[in-house]
Amino acid sequence: MLNRFKFSYWWKRIIIFFAVFGPATITAMADNDGAGVATYSLAGAQFGYSILFVLLIVTILLAITQEMGVRIAIVTGKGLGDLIRERYGVLVSLLVFLGLAIANIGTIVADFAAIKATAILFNIPVVPLILLVVVLAFIFVTKGNYRSNQRIFLVASLFFFCYVISALKARPDWDLALKSLVIPTNIHFSKEFVLAIIAVLGTTITPWGQFFINSYVIDKKLSIDKLKYEQLETFFGAFLTDFFSFFMIVATAATLFVNRITLISGEQAALAIKPFAGDLASILFGLGMLNAGFMGIVVVSLSTAYAFSEFFGNEGSLDAPFEKDKIFYGLFLAQLIIAAIIVLLPWISLFKLVFYTQALNGALLPFIFFFLLKITNNRELMGKHINNRWYNYFAIISSVVIVLSSLFLIFTSIFNL
Amino acid sequence: MLYFSEIKGKKVFSEDHVLVGFLDDLIFQASELPQITKLIIRLPNKQKIIIDIDALIKINHNIVIKKKYNLSELVENELYLVRNLLDKQIIDIKGHKVIRVNDVVIQDKEGWYISGVDVGVLGLLRWIKLEKFFQNLHGIFGWKMKPIFLSWADIQPLELARGQVFLKKKEEKLQRIRSEDLADYLEKTTIKNVKKVIDTLNTQYSAEVLQNLNINYQSAIFRSFPPEKAAQFLEVIDSDETVDILLAIGYKKRQLIIPFLSESKKQEVIYLLDLSKTSIGKLITSEFFCVDSQMTVSQITNKLRIETPDFSSLNYIYVINQEKQLIGVINLHELLLQSNDVIVFKFMTQNVVVAHLTTPEEIAVKKMLKYHLVALPVIDINKKILGIITLDDVDEFILKKLT
Fold first, then answer.
1. Which of A264, A331, A333, A391 has the most crowded Cβ, counting Cβ within 10 A?
2. Taking 80 as the threshold, does the pLDDT of residue A407 lie above it?
3. Whether the predicted pLDDT of A8 surpasses 80
4. How far apart are CA A246 and CA A193, in angstroms?
5. Which residues of A touch B87 (CB under 8 A)?
6. Predicted TM-score of the model (pTM)
7. CA-CA distance, B94 to B62, in Å (whole number)?
8. Is B322 exposed, middle or buried (0-12, 13-18, 19+ CB in 10 A)?
9. pLDDT of res. A201
10. Count of domains in chain B?
């Protein structure tokens, strides 16, 4: 009798968890966008297993920052965009959102660039592929509603298993990999190493990620009694993201690092691992890159569209029909088109452009974390779900770490150029 | 009227020119008539004080308050303008997000109250001081930006405390502040203010507003417009109203404006102006509906649907013969009672009560009252219909008689 009661109790919880499941995992997975995959591949090729220990830190930081976003969204029912506009007025929010829009265009360009590079490596015609991506993304978003989009994103997330297989095919040294993950091993500190760590951090924890998770949770319309489940999902999502990052690094570390092959850019990894891991691993790695790029393009464009809809106060929901929310869908499409054009223009230096937008992303982060901490410490807004003391210390330390590293990245890069 | 964005952050001085602080926020009553009751002033030391609106003397370049003011505090049913209304999400009755409150419109004549909110792009631009710039672009690109007002009457004041602005209607049914309401508000302010507002609205809407103003305002405003602009507005205003305005602004200006009217409007107006020389002519409206005596009920209803959507009222359908002579009349009730294929000739009333241009006003009114008519056709010697006078047109006459 007692057993049966217990069984149904747990069963019910699990069902609720899966009903709630989606937003946090998708946001976290999108953090491994095309630019992210490229960064991880590069880091793995350059520093091998030794860079793996960063993943643990990244996972914790990602979980904490995303959790704040989720909590704000569920407790207040408002997005980060809503709250910034309502609490800081037109001028401040306009500056932040314009910064976000520009940085996001840069990120989308980086994702398109990843797709373009992969297409070239595998002899797929570039222009048709990019057009196809734009059209597909637009159809997914305008024709679908929240549920269908979530399903597409979750299926896309499954494609990250490509990296697991690639890594297995590369026959890595599993013992060393797992050991390096928990205990920093074989570390040779150099400026490049520090920069690689920061790059990994910066590609995973982003302004758009913070905006997106807020808005996406709201679009799912979760009630406050689901808060615990959604928080749990946030931690799971952060884990899952870096679970896959682990395999990306391992795949390049076991092949390129071990054989002392240097990569010029992360996008070349798919082809470069071919001699060591075989055709299948190479193709899967490329496929994973295309998928990551696509997911990044859709999610980052959506995050701008959400933020501006919150600024203007229109419906701003995937559930709204196209005719009713032209601002939302219009913004989404406009970014895709602008980014696609930039990527196809031969005379634009993608490397520089991506670099500057990374810097802008880094410059925005301090503001975003200022808002996040302000809001999560506001009892009027958050009620009993305010940050508790220890959590607050942790959140502040995390924010400071992220902010410092992004500032460090900006400064070192500026003085190097 | 003024916008909150225009006064937020303004310096506050006391009567004797001592700086008190800066305007930070306003407090208003969350009710159907949202009176502004208190000002919140940020002192130079960042501390905020609340003072009663009674202490306010004037707002122009700076805000001036009385030397002796009492500190006040928030009482029940009062809300902060910035914290509870400005920048907040507007949600319609079905729970859909509509837009945000970009600015708040404050009425400063006969007491201080909030008359509505601005939800247009100009409301946003005003905060970043780019409103003028974008309005000037209008001249270059030919687009006109207008503030979009949302009347306080459409907002549920009691929901504001929750930080969201709930509407009383569905989004689709939501209209900008009704032109009649805006006209009422405007009549409480100065002509200069009215002109300022009219300038920001689109032609159609401002014509509606102008039409609802009283004749003194109308004539003052039209006198100040250049003839071309006046003609533009008159083009959209009902013809009999146009004639009233033209009569009020005097012969000289009138002659300047008329050439700018479109051909059809010009003919109508000249015709009506001509009639206005006789006693009854002044009252005539050209808004009437004629049908041929051979038409069927369904033909009539079709014609009515096409030709009369912008009529302000329609009570009778006049029936004319081939020579355009008035031979009968039906009212709408009679029309509705008939089946579709009946010819109007069969059921019209043939003895039409009419007036002539020479009929004294009093006789015409007496006829209307005696026969319970709300409109009376005016015909010429050839029995051709010139126009009608409606009860609306003679109500002043009746009122005068009564008092």
1. A331
2. no
3. no
4. 17
5. 85-86, 89-90
6. 0.69
7. 42
8. exposed
9. 82
10. 3
Q: Residue B360 has what pLDDT? A: 80
Look at residues B256, B277, B298 and tell me which one is the last residue of a structural domain. Answer: B277
d(CA A268, CA A37): 11
Q: Under CATH, which number does the domain A47-416 receive?
A: 1.20.1740.10
User: What is this model's ipTM?
Assistant: 0.75
Q: What is the mean pLDDT of residues A189-197?
A: 79
The structure tokens 């410059």 sit at A363
In sequence order, what are the beta bridge partners of B14?
A: B65
User: Which of A198, A202, A203, A192 minimizes the C-alpha distance to A47?
Assistant: A192
Nearest CB to B128; choose among A78, A90, A313: A90
Q: Where do the domains of chain A lie? A: 47-416
Q: Do A315 and B97 touch (CB under 8 A)?
A: yes
Find the domain containing B19 and state its range.
2-173
Please identify which residue in the block is written with the tokens 């004041």.
Answer: B157
Residues B165, A313, A96: CA angle, nearest 5 degrees:
125
> A18-21 long-range CB contacts below 8 Å, 24 or more apart?
A20/A220, A20/A222, A20/A226, A20/A229, A20/A230, A20/A233, A21/A229, A21/A233
Residue B284 domain-assigned (yes or no): no
Q: What is the pLDDT of residue B160?
A: 76
Task: Note whether B17 and B160 are same-domain residues.
Answer: yes
Q: How many CA atoms lie within 13 A of A170 on its CB side?
A: 35
How is the beta sheet containing B375-379 ordered, strand by strand? B355-356, B375-379, B385-390
Q: Which residue of A has its CA nearest to B172?
A: A324
pLDDT at B175 over 60: no
Are B7 and B60 contained in the same domain?
A: yes
Whether B99 sits inside 8 A of A313 (CB atoms) is yes
Residue B286 scores a pLDDT above 90? no
pLDDT digits (tens, 9 = 90+) for B232-259: 888 888 877 788 788 777 778 888 888 8
Residue B105 one-letter amino acid = V
Name which of A90, A311, A313 is nearest B98 (Cβ-Cβ): A313
Residue B316 confidence (pLDDT)? 93
Judge whether B36 lies within some domain.
yes
CA distance A334 to chain B (A): 20
